[in-house]
Design goal:
about 180 residues; alpha+beta; seven-stranded mixed sheet; 5 helices; 7 strands
């Protein structure tokens, strides 16, 4: 499996059949808001491909610079017929590998099991990200009435883990972009 950046046309062609299928309407940013973020360099999309084609996709929000320090994983989904086969875990491995030597990290928002409508599902997501190398932080966030715990994935070659206070400030800056 490999990952590659998706251009705006590819992302546009995935929006309706994939994002609308994989995310509830109240969580999905309308294309008319997403497209300008892509054009301005704040949102980046990658596809995860194997011999069968597209296996998964991920969309990230960054500060738009050439070498972002932090990327917020905005959307991540494995193709429905491929779920439960280890592809998500492989995608996390590829994300972590892509971070190597870049001094960048990925932030994950995961529903707080204490406030989630489905606490078991929220715990499974947290465990999934932990198995993929992410760590829990002391940072939380509330968006549109949903409480999130913040996790972070850093490259194995990162010298020191980001402090929660700094992570919270970077997350806040990324929220202001969207």
């Amino acid at each position: 499996m490999y990952l590659r950046t998706l251009n705006i046309e590819e992302m546009g062609s995935l929006y309706t059949p994939c994002l609308k299928r994989d995310f509830p309407p109240d969580e999905l940013m309308p294309w008319k808001l997403m497209e300008p973020l892509i054009r301005k360099g704040f949102q980046h999309s990658v596809g995860f491909f194997d011999s069968e084609g597209l296996a998964a996709y991920a969309l990230f929000i960054t500060d738009g610079g050439d070498s972002p320090r932090t990327a917020l994983l905005n959307y991540f989904a494995v193709e429905p017929q491929r779920r439960g086969s280890g592809i998500g875990t492989e995608c996390l491995r590829l994300m972590r590998e892509a971070l190597r030597g870049r001094g960048c990290r990925i932030i994950f928002e995961v529903e707080d099991p204490e406030a989630a409508p489905d606490p078991d599902y929220a715990r499974r997501r947290i465990d999934f990200y932990k198995r993929g190398g992410a760590r829990s932080t002391g940072v939380g966030s509330t968006l549109f009435g949903v409480e999130y715990l913040i996790m972070v994935l850093e490259s194995e070659d990162t010298e020191a883990a980001i402090a929660d206070r700094e992570l919270a400030a970077e997350l806040d800056a990324l929220y202001h972009i969207t």
